[in-house]
Amino acid sequence: MTIQAVPEPATRTEHLLFLDRAAVRTCAAGIDPVAAVEDVLRAHAAGHTALPAEGYLPWANSQGAYCRSIAMLGSVGAADPTVPTAYGMKLINAATSNPAQGRERAGGVSFLFDPETARPAVVAEAAYLSALRTGAYTMSSLRHLGPERFQEVTLIGCGAQARTHAELLARYFPDVRTLHVHDLLPERASAFASWVEGSELPFTVVPHGRAAEAAAASTVVITLTITDTGYLSPDHLRPGTFVAHVSLDDLLPEVFDRAQALYVDDVELVRDNPRRVLGRLLGEGRVLGPGTPKPGTSTIRGTLGDVLTAAVPAERPGTGVVVSNPFGMAVLDVGLLARVYARAAADGHGTRLDLLGADR
Ligand code: NAD
């Protein structure tokens, strides 16, 4: 009988790298977030990602405010097999009462896992990364599906996402000069205008008292609210408008009925969530999934990944309205964090945490 030697527990260390928001920001400044997001979208379209069902835990806090935790696992590889797969998770929580207390509504952490030991290897502040990947997705959709030329953009909702979108618009669309903005709370729109004024962003901010007025002011409309009640109808949108429906419940069903073209990030993710308008319309058969055209019924053209891989043609707004409805994919956070981590490792950013402490 042979007795197999049990390996010595020589390395009883459990380290992970912590990247706070400042470190994430510094590392992200050294990468191209739109290129990173487009790589993941192409990998997703090619089937080189895994996106398990998300965990969702809602509750009400002592003020009766809605709170929720969303845990989203994902892995992303590349079409090129020499590029290693990244495994990770985004945990993003929110309480609707946070902003009134001076706190961002949503916050959390994202992880990368060691592919060999499966241990969490990196933990990073998630809200900035989440806003960055969401904004980067919008920039990519605008690049491929937006009007050929535009100098004015409308942002409806002036919270955290609006700021990241403004930063990315300045970087990727330097022709843009004017931001038309609206927020249900006028003080949020004013705070956004003051923030832009105090920054180096090259924009004139024009606040509008009504969402419809703001939407009609430009041909690029980005919804960044937290509404669950639609308020934008086709009549509010100019012919030739591109809508990035980031907050997912702002467009009334008629906008989807009459859309010139409709794109998503992942058809099943959208379909599986009837709490959001497009998921509901898909469930009712009022909007159809790709590949099943029926005269008179709106059909999803495909995903942005399909556009990037040329599997589906890109259609820019002509006389109609093109809608991008990204549900939000954790694989984008994981893929982006992998790039951020590579920078952090190369430049020595972050704090090493010892999980075991003296208990070894
Ligand atoms: P936030 O709370 O920081 O800001 C939201 C702003 O919208 C607030 O200023 C609020 O006053 C305003 N608002 C709420 N209802 C409004 C309405 N009906 N009209 C006009 N303004 C209104 O939120 P955030 O972190 O900036 O996120 C914005 C949205 O983006 C959220 O709905 C979030 O879930 C969504 N999001 C989507 C994706 C995606 O991939 N689809 C990813 C991340 C976040």
From TrEMBL:
Name of the protein in question: Ornithine cyclodeaminase
GO CC annotations, alphabetized: cytoplasm
Gene3D superfamilies, alphabetized: NAD(P)-binding Rossmann-like Domain, ornithine cyclodeaminase, domain 1
Top-rank lineage group of the source organism: Bacteria
